[in-house]
Amino acid sequence: MDPSKNALVKRITAIRTAQIRRLSGQPDQESLFPGTIAAAALALLMAWAPGVRSLDAAPQQAAPSFAVASIKPEVSGQPGPRYQFFPGFKAENTTLKDLLMLAYDVKDFQISGGPSWIGSDHYDIEATTEAKPSFDQKWLASQKQRLQTLMRERFGLTLHRETKELPIYRLIVAKGGLKLQPLKEGACVTFDPNNPTPPPGKTAQDYCGSGGFPRRGRYDATSARMMDLALAFSILTGRTVVDKTGITGEFPVHLTFAPDDSMLQVPGAPGDPGNAAAAADSGPSFFTAVQEQLGLRLESGKGPVEVLVIDHVEKPSEN
User: How many Å separate Cα 109 from the centre of its chain?
Assistant: First the structure.
C-alpha cells in the first residue's frame, strides 16, 4: 500500500473519473475541470481481468498524436490530478504515473520500474489535435492513444508488457447465496445525452450504470454490476479482483465496514453525512461485511496480471 496519503488521494481521484461509464454525466467538480462533461465519460473501464484489453495502440496503423502540446511543471499546488478530454486534452497537477494509469487503463501496482520522480513530479499539460472531436467513446479512446504517443515523444518513454503471477482475489458467491436484490424499475436515472445535467436532487452517481464509488468505511451504488463491485474492491484492497460469480444484472448496493490500516484509506466527500459514522471505524471488517451484507466472498489466490514495465523514461523539456 502506498504510504503517501497525498498520492492515495490523487490515485483515487483519477480512478473515480474512469469509473463513470455507459453515460456522460455531469463531472465531479473535485476531480474534473468544471463543465467538462467528456472527462466524466473517461469511458473505457479499467481492465481488471488479464487479457481483457490491449495496453498498446493498434500496431497496424499510425498511432494518433496531438498537433501541439505544452508540458510545464505544476507550481500552483491546486488539488489534482484533473483532466479534460474534449475537445482537446488538458491535465492539471498530474504525474507521469497518473498519465500511465489513465492512458493504459491500469492500476499503479501494474506499473513496474522507472525512477521515483514519475510519481512525485507534477505537470500541467495542454494539447490540441487537428482531428474533429466527436463526443463518444471512440474519441476518448483516441485521446488516450494520443496521450500514449505524447509520453513516448516528450518523456522518451519506452515500455513493454509482462504477465506476472500475482496475488489476486476471486469474487464468488458466499455460502447461503446472494443477498442483493435486483434493481427495481425506475430506481436509477436514465442518462439523456441531450441534457447531461442530472435532475434536481440527483448526481451522476444516480445514473443507471454509474457503478458507485468506494469511500472510507462504505461503498454505495444506485446500480452496480458484479464487475463494478470487483473494481471497487480492487481499489479498496490494492489487489486485482476477478469476478467469478457468473451473476448478471444490476443491483443497489450499500456496504458499510470498519476500514483498517491494510486497506486503502479512501477520503470521503466533504459534508458527506456518512463520514462521521465511518470515521468511528465501527462495524465488521471489510471481508466479513462483504459476506454478511452482500452474500459474496473474496477468495484469496494467485493469477496472471498484466504489468507495464518501464524500460526508459526521461524528464520532458518545458514548452
Answer: 13
